[in-house]
Here is the input.
Amino acid sequence: MVEVSRRNMIAGTAAAAVATVNPATISASRAQGAVVAPMTGVYSYKLGDVELIQVYDGSRTFPMPDGFVVNASKEETAKAYQALHMPPGQLTISFSPLVIKSAGKIIAIDTGNGLGANAASKGAVGNARHSMTAASIDPKAVDIVLISHFHGDHINGLKNADGTPAYPNAQILVPATEWAFWTDESNASKANASNKGNFANVKKVFDGLKPTPFEAGKEVAPGITSMATPGHTPGHTSFIVASGGKSLAVQGDVTNHPGVFMPNPGWHAVFDNDGALAEQTRRKFFDMASADKLPVVGYHFPFPSAGYVEKNGNGYRLVQVHALT
Amino acid sequence: MVEVSRRNMIAGTAAAAVATVNPATISASRAQGAVVAPMTGVYSYKLGDVELIQVYDGSRTFPMPDGFVVNASKEETAKAYQALHMPPGQLTISFSPLVIKSAGKIIAIDTGNGLGANAASKGAVGNARHSMTAASIDPKAVDIVLISHFHGDHINGLKNADGTPAYPNAQILVPATEWAFWTDESNASKANASNKGNFANVKKVFDGLKPTPFEAGKEVAPGITSMATPGHTPGHTSFIVASGGKSLAVQGDVTNHPGVFMPNPGWHAVFDNDGALAEQTRRKFFDMASADKLPVVGYHFPFPSAGYVEKNGNGYRLVQVHALT
Here is the structure.
């Protein structure tokens, strides 16, 4: 019997391939994004009487030599990225909208990078609609789209590549604070450098759509309550989904990459408009989730984007689970 | 602006639900398996020119008061299970067959608990075929089914609920050592208590099928090489998938639950026919995977069932990644 050993692996017919396993090769391929089209991801589960379906939009690997975390050194971040098996000097981020079937309604939370991004990224992202189709969800049947905040990776999927509405029969519900901020270009003076360019994209995406603003602390869809989690953007919003005596929290960018910001909650992302407020929100939110053992769904968590948050040293960690409910 | 705080969550409209979040309630629901039908899981990615599609069969939560790990105390295992956010005294295990598209062939590795199990488990498991359909994979188009070993959760999906072949046009390739062992009932004397009953199921599942035995260390499908990883069962086999200078390892039960046996590689599962050999294989396999930074797909890993293995103290840990390639 041939047993596991490096020697017999190298002696076997896969020898050449195994012998040439090389993280640098993998990294280069990741960075090009050339081998990831099309990506499909679907994961369904239940919470009480509510069905939740994660629909994967994809993952991108960005060259981020020193720009992603604004208050940590290049050396510190490089060490953190390496610990996560990401390509040297680069950062891989996932994107996963959530579809919820509750009380006869189909509700989407955020929309992905959009079908235009799919072509531009060679299929690495912009696959949420493709994943929805795999889950037998017809975009025309979506009743409500809830938006967490107005960054492009969350709102661009509201439109098809040709500019037509992607969810033509859905009510589009947006945080009132977010709407007020981004639709008034005079607020550009309150936006940091990485957010100043976002006003134009917001205008373009919402042109021809009729979004309805909602307040924090309200039931915005059956069993779904909004919660203000500001800092990343002024109106950044999370959601609590509740059914049958159980709850889970859905967070957009309370943390972006969980492997980066959970162990280092004091690190500020370049896309945080107010890094200090984002950090305060992050600590409160994760303290609550860990104390209450509240499952958390994260837009940028590795697919299928759900887990439990635990305190760990001076930070937090995400524990993936086999079944949420 | 309402900001995140426990007070405003309780003051909000989801107050009743949030206030009653109770791990015990979640646990009871998990244990009943009543809320998990139907489960769908699909996750596609690429390795070189090969496409890999994880197809989720589901997760089950078993009452395992003290029987799952045979050489650790009830207190030790209870502590380990609790750290994984599983219901008190219970263990949740996932099942994920892998479909590979390589050189024009469609290859499945293992088959899930089967459609009969879907009904019996109220949809908690037996969903691999449903997930394949979501991934637009027609069972009739599957060319090769590779089997890691002959336990029911890996082979029962070879048949439909009515006993007809689930992959009618596929070559069914099985480890030669596994075939020799389980098809000779005189070997029952070499099987431990939890494996003695498996001979009858093997006979039933393979009745009417014409499996072809393969040896370890051979290319069994385009770019896929078999590797003997014995102990869990005598012919337990893993696979190395290689394409474009990159490789990954596919392991059935080198570890069962990664959260249990990776930190505690010396623990033996009740289903290990030879616990000591299984442990030796596990340590060799994970030493190799961690040294070579070889991505590992695990049949019982939490969906989507892939990650990197790292040495951690006296054991190992699984690091989930955002994108494998």
Summary: Chain A touches chain B through 89 residues (CB under 8 Å). Residues 38-319 of chain A form a domain with the Metallo-beta-lactamase; Chain A fold (CATH 3.60.15.10).
